[in-house]
Amino acid sequence: MDFGISAATYLVLIFTILYFLKQWNKKSISNFPPGPKGLPLIGYLHVMNLENPHVTYLELAKKYGSVFSVPMGMKRTVVLAGYETVKDALVNHAEDFGERARIEIFKTMDKGMGLSFSHGDNWKVMRRFTIKTLRDYGMGKSTIEDKIVEECGHLIQYVSSFKGQRIDDPMILNAGVGNIIVSILFGQRMDYNDPTFRKLISLTDQNNKYLGSPMVSIYNIFPFLGFLPGTHKIVSSNTDKLVEYATQTFTERLKDLDENGQRGYIDAFLVKQKEDAENPKSYFHDDNLTRVVRNLLSAGTETTTNTLNWALLLMAKHKDIQEKVQDEIYRVVGHAQPLYSHRGQMPYTNAVVHEIQRYSDIVPISVAHETSRDVTFKGYFIPKGTCIVPLLSSVLRDKTQFERPDEFYPNHFLDAKGNFLKKDAFMPFSAGRRACAGETLARMELFMFFTTLLQKFTFRSPAGVSGVDMTPGMGYITTPKKLMICADARY
Fold first, then answer.
1. Exposure string for 304-324, b = 16+ CB within 10 A, e = fewer
2. Which of 126, 138, 146, 459 is the most exposed place for a label (fewest CB within 10 A)?
């Protein structure tokens, strides 16, 4: 019998049923964190600032407090805001909040392998091996400091080639910073104009921009829409190219692998792979190697590069601070190469570097976590498998921790006598079990690249450009929309 029900009516009926199922499921979780209501199926997606979701989260925190939930599609994400709450979750309840969330784009990219987005024993083994190997190849030691000094020389030479004109190579800092992790991975640096090197840096940079795009956010919530064209397709294609390059590299390395003369991380991994050849449950296989290489290229390049990009813009904008930094560098080392060990003698410069990291807010939202078990936190019940978003932006701009959170104010990290002041709320690398594995390396790079650049150059806006454009661009990592900068040689 034909009741004249149209396809549209069927769709409305399905949506209605799904909505009530969602509401019933929501009510079945007693004492879940509060938050805004969403629409059927899409949740709060229609309200979210998809290019800068942390902006929406910061507004919601003002209304709902330090622990709240947001419906994203048919699931609710729990957001943690403010220093005390984020620290309590990631450090004091590290086991409860220490799992990595299953995010669709990262599942597509890494297939659950590698370091940054793996889980369970795979993650534990890869992290343990990676930290040990990074230390073996100099992280935190004078050997890696020597590599940074060498790279500083190449970078200074390249910046000098612009002769005070606008620096029109957007990848200049990517190349300098990228070469440090490249030398650790492959055992040698690459020339800035090497087409393969520039392609690696370009693919990595493009991925980090597109990971923060609206289409990737939509794909993460509705993976069945993956067939549509969009930036998620570009990210996947770029990842395939990076993996292909890593595979070609270690395939070539196997031909002349010397267990007693390992050249870098890849060689160390391949030696471990040979040692575990008879173990069918070994995690030292090709898929893990290619994904760890991709993870390290990305993590070892993008955050430090963009922090330095913001640093140069901030120095061009705050000329008085730039001059103070330059004066302190000269008092301590003169024309000699600044080293990481000099930071104790440069309290103001050290404070400026920390304030650049705080103010630039490079990673406003930590990579999403997931509860490893049911947990009661801050009086709320959060079930196992809930997606957790630590809002690092709210930590770095916590009014209870920083006097002028919305201003660039180096005194945040100085005491009344001008000594460097450590702040527990300084969490640009996140905290707890999932904190950045390369934090020590990043700190060394930031201080040494920054002081060397400020020692050799004074940074300013190009002639005819009014002011310094501090507008952030789209991206998973907060990047300057434009790096309009000139470098005048100081001597």
1. bbbbbbbbbbbbbbbeebbee
2. 146
